[in-house]
Amino acid sequence: MTDVEKMLAVSLLLSLLSGTGVFLLGVREYRIKPNVFNFVTELVLALITGLTAYFFARQQGLDEIVIYLAVLVASNNWRELSTVFKERLIAAINGVLGSKGGSGQ
């Protein structure tokens, strides 16, 4: 197994661990109903954001420990990150559409 494969495997495990933690905390705080569908949803979303952070951090050339930190932070905070991403995407789309002269004035 190469170093890259090992880092990817560790990042996957960290993401799954974070997703499990977010689910259990949500159940404890009565935000999430304790069922399999919600558990799998948390795991999938944690994996998506964790892997996104992994590939972004790798592309930036960050150290291994910083990559793992980015994976943990992203997979633990996917709700906040998705909200920020959505707001920036909407602003970018509005900027593109607004620059086309669509206001009719």
UniProtKB/TrEMBL annotation:
Spell out where the chain crosses the membrane. 6-27, 39-57
Alphabetized UniProt keyword annotations: Membrane, Transmembrane, Transmembrane helix
Q: What is this protein called?
A: Holin
